């Protein structure tokens, strides 16, 4: 293990706190924590909760970057607390606060219902009422690759809550919902692409995107979110949701 992994760092941790049962407004509280380089931000926050202030509230589950539940703003940037190593912090001051644009329930926990309402609005499931084949519905490797990136979304809300248009208009469906619509719009087995495109062809849909790229930068799964949004826009204009090839596209009419 590298020396930087075992080297102790004394951190000043500033946490954005809010308890609606006792606080009139959010405020900051500061803690001192000693951590090793291979510790994660999640370890530091849990250290505070376990050993300094049990009232600190956060949301977490798998702690391995799969569930997405510990999304928060870390030094001003959306990220998963379980994926940020202490050795990679540029400063010995660590600032953590809840993701923006969603109501704060307590401390680092936000109400995810508005986010999931937008997600559910784009029909994030396979639709195919054709008679079931005797085997699985087959796809070519090229057809599967067409939407491979957008299958990786873990619904952490990092992309949507880093989006300035979403901050200004919470009716905007948001990047995560568009990513999950993309996953089925371009799935050759699905038969509801046109319906999803119609849902997103709205003032609060895909056209609200201003191509800021915050969503792409914030995604902990490295999904090219902005590119996916542009592909949905293009499909809406052309009706082409097929596999792009060197000499054209195989059109699957939306």
Task: Give an overview in words.
The protein has 254 residues and is α+β, with helices and mostly antiparallel strands. It is 28% helix and 17% strand. The longest helix has 14 residues, at 225-238. The model is unreliable at 245-254 (pLDDT under 50).
**What helical percentage do the residues reach?**
25-40%
Radius of gyration: 21 Å
Shape: elongated
In percent terms, what proportion of residues is strand?
15-25%
Oligomer: single chain
Note the topology.
Elements: H1 3-6, E1 8-17, E2 27-36, H2 41-51, E3 71-74, E4 77-80, E5 93-97, E6 104-106, E7 109-110, H3 113-121, H4 141-145, H5 164-168, H6 175-185, H7 193-200, H8 214-218, H9 225-238, E8 244-245, E9 248-249
Features:
254 residues, alpha+beta, five-stranded mixed beta sheet, two-stranded antiparallel sheet, 28% helix, 17% strand, disordered C terminus
Short overview:
The protein has 254 residues and is α+β, with helices and mostly antiparallel strands. The chain has helices spanning 3-6, 41-51, 113-121, 141-145, 164-168, 175-185, 193-200, 214-218, 225-238, and strands at residues 8-17, 27-36, 71-74, 77-80, 93-97, 104-106, 109-110, 244-245, 248-249.
């Amino acid at each position: 293990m590298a020396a930087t992994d075992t080297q102790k760092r004394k951190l000043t941790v500033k946490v954005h706190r809010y308890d609606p049962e006792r606080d009139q407004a959010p405020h900051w509280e500061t803690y001192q924590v000693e951590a090793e380089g291979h510790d994660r931000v999640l370890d530091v926050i849990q250290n505070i909760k376990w050993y300094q202030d049990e009232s600190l509230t956060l949301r977490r589950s798998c702690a391995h970057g799969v569930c997405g539940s510990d999304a928060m703003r870390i030094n001003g940037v959306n990220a998963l607390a379980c994926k940020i190593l202490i050795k990679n912090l540029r400063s010995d001051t660590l600032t953590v606060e809840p993701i923006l644009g969603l109501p704060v329930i307590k401390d680092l926990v936000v109400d995810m219902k508005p986010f999931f309402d937008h997600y559910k609005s784009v029909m994030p499931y396979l639709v195919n009422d054709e008679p079931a084949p005797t085997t699985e519905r087959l796809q070519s490797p090229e057809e599967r690759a067409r939407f491979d990136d957008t299958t990786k979304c873990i619904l952490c809300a990092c992309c949507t809550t880093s989006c300035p248009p979403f901050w200004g208009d919470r009716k905007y469906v948001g990047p995560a919902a568009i990513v999950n619509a993309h996953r089925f719009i371009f799935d050759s087995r699905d038969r509801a692409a046109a319906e999803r495109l119609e849902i997103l062809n709205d003032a609060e849909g895909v056209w609200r995107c201003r191509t800021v790229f915050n969503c792409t930068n914030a995604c902990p799964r490295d999904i090219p979110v902005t590119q996916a949004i542009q592909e949905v826009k293009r499909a809406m204009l052309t009706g082409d949701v097929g596999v792009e090839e060197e000499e054209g596209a195989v059109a699957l009419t939306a």
